[in-house]
Design brief:
heterodimer, A: alpha/beta, 2 domains, five-stranded antiparallel sheet, 31% helix, B: mainly alpha, MetI-like fold, elongated
């Protein structure tokens, strides 16, 4: 049986000069949470948008393989893709404040998904919307259905987005930094909710984040992205226990661990910034910021396997 | 807005009194000096202008717009008779303008940056630069005289309103098209449209339900203001097409120095303009739930 989502050698460019994603590969299995981590601008969101074929104007994607439940997504036209989106694969975004249409009620925006994909009556759709609002922890769902987005707080809006994504019982949920715009207490609630839903509904989830604390709590598997490439991918425990790529190691040093961190010891940081990568770039994109770098890093780097299911992109030995 | 109304009617009041001795022009050409003095007294024109103004305002507030010197009837009756023609013309013009500019604006936005988009923008610019009486005459020559499709003057049937409606619409189309285009481009780039696409909605639903609803908000406000302009601008068009509306009445009355009628027309058009602006605000509240209390 094929994996839920398979991405192989995905490349995304905007115009002819910038390549935002350079040969990303990842797999999401049914019922697992795959976390995609990395700093801002490394291509996490673009990868997700490319999978959904939601790239902004001027963006173009190419891949060796892009399949969902064994179905080739690259061969689908707009209509075929629209049939899957919101239906079998759903997505929630980073900006709950602006992701809902200000002109329509919560109920109208939620029910139209079900009516579009399943052709149900308005009544059935409204019942389902109310059930799901209750399921994501919104009290008085009947009241909320009649309200407009501006009448809800950011946390409520993100819950509405999540409930809306679940309307058609998707197999895959792509969540692009769903908690970044929310305050810390709400973040925890939303994450707990997502983890719960993922477990109860057996969702495959691709969770994009730059927060390693979130990764440690919810991920089954982690892929670390840097400058448009997945530089390391492993099961969560393995990655935290034995990171292989210097970038992953650097990221982990940046996270304070209560009890382990000494008061006088400064928190780690990675010097420099992500380089701008154009077409024809060779070698390791991290080499200018890496303390292990030498002349060989300017040449093509082979992908190595540290252990089964744990691979990384660095010249250093496992 | 009340200021605009007060100002415009105030200006009309003063201008009518600057255009020569009213008593002389009302009297017949061979009237004696004594006759003119009698008229001056009868119409109250011997009093200071400021007294005349407040007297007029006071009566206008109670709905009495005075009597026409020329038609020998109440001004309010005259305007009520002529208003349907002007309103029909204005609404026709606005409907034509909306039917052209909204689809054009949407198409230009969808094909942003293409030759089609640029052509629409150019045509819109030309439309704005073209004087309406000239366009009116061109249409009359082509469709009225050469092709004989449409009547060139009169108020008899709906056909009489087609050409003047098109001419009026032309003045509103550029602004409405560009506003629709800008609103659609902004909406299509927004997060909620990305959400709508992520929901797998049809292209028609994304464009016409989700984007247009938000893009239409400023368009509605401007459309109402444009209707106000059209009603005012109909003075020229009604003259060109000999439509006997309020604009035509104003034109006749200016020529005959029938100043109570001129003042009243300006006042009524100004009041309608203010009312339309208010309607626009109410319509915005209907379209944009964030504006509702």
């Amino acid at each position: 049986m094929s994996a839920l989502l398979e991405v192989e050698q995905l490349e995304v460019g905007f115009g002819s000069r910038t390549s935002a994603v350079r040969g990303t590969s990842l797999t999401v299995e049914r019922g697992e949470t795959h976390c995609l981590v990395g700093e801002s601008g490394c291509g996490k969101s673009v990868t997700a948008l490319a999978v959904m074929n939601l790239l902004a104007r001027g963006g173009h994607r190419r891949a060796r393989r892009l399949s969902f439940q064994g179905e080739d997504l690259l061969g689908l036209n707009d209509r075929g893709m629209a049939r899957l989106r919101g239906n079998a694969m759903a997505m929630i975004f980073q900006e709950p404040m602006t992701s809902l249409n200000p002109a329509y009620t919560v109920g109208s925006q939620m029910t139209e998904v079900l009516r579009r994909h399943k052709g149900t009556s308005q009544r059935v759709a409204t019942d389902r919307a109310a059930d799901l609002l209750a399921r994501v922890g919104i009290t008085a769902p009947g009241l909320r259905l009649g309200q407009f987005p501006h009448q809800l707080s950011g946390g409520l809006r993100q819950r509405v987005m999540i409930a809306m994504a679940l309307m058609c019982e998707p197999q895959l949920l792509i969540a692009d930094e769903p908690t970044t715009a929310l305050d810390v207490t709400v973040q925890a609630q939303i994450l707990r909710l997502l983890a719960e839903l993922q477990r109860d509904l057996g969702l495959g989830m691709l969770l994009i984040t730059h927060d390693l604390g979130i990764v440690a709590r919810v991920a089954t598997r982690v892929s670390v992205m840097y400058a448009g490439e997945v530089v390391e991918s492993a099961a969560t425990a393995q990655l935290f226990a034995a990171p292989k790529h210097p970038y992953t190691q650097g990221l982990l040093r940046c996270v304070p661990v209560p009890g382990k961190q000494r008061q006088d010891e400064p928190l780690g940081s990675i010097p420099g910034t992500v380089p701008r990568i154009g077409p024809g770039f060779e070698g390791c994109a991290f080499r200018e910021r890496c303390s292990f770098a030498d002349a060989t890093c300017a040449h093509a780097i082979p992908r190595k396997t540290a252990s089964p299911g744990h691979d990384y992109l660095c010249r250093l030995p496992a | 807005m009340p200021t605009c109304r007060r100002n415009s009617s105030g200006i009309a009041f003063i201008l009518t009194r600057l255009s020569g001795d009213l008593a002389t022009s009302i009297a017949s050409p061979n009237a004696t000096q004594a006759d003119i003095e009698t008229i001056r007294k009868a119409y109250g024109l011997d009093r200071p202008v400021i007294t005349q103004f407040f007297d007029w305002v006071g009566r206008a507030l109670t709905g009495d717009l005075g009597n026409s010197y020329f038609f020998q009837t109440r001004v309010s009756t005259l305007i009520a008779e002529r208003m349907p023609v002007t309103l029909t013309l204005g609404v026709t013009g606005l409907l034509i303008a909306l039917c052209v500019s909204i689809p054009l604006g949407i198409l230009a936005a969808v094909r942003e940056g293409t030759g089609f988009d640029r052509t629409v923008q150019m045509v819109a610019l030309l439309g704005q630069a073209m004087p309406s009486f000239w366009l009116g005459l061109l249409l009359m020559i082509t469709f009225g005289l050469q092709l004989g499709w449409l009547p060139i003057s009169g108020t008899g049937s709906w056909e009489n309103f087609v050409m003047p409606g098109v001419v009026l619409a032309f003045s509103a189309i550029p602004a409405l098209t560009r506003l629709t285009r800008a609103g659609m481009i902004q909406a299509m780039g927004s997060d909620y449209i990305r959400t709508a696409r992520a929901k797998g909605l049809s292209r028609a639903s994304i464009l016409l339900k989700h984007a247009l609803r938000n893009a239409a908000i400023p368009v509605v406000a401007i459309a109402a203001v444009q209707l106000g302009f059209m009603l005012g601008g109909s003075i020229v068009i009604e003259q060109v097409f000999a439509l006997h509306g309020v604009g035509f009445l104003a034109w006749e009355s200016i020529a005959k120095n029938d100043f109570p009628v001129v003042q009243a027309v300006v006042l009524v058009l100004a009041v309608i303009y203010v009312a339309l602006t208010m309607v626009a605000d109410l319509m915005n509240a209907v379209l944009d739930p964030r504006l509702r209390v």
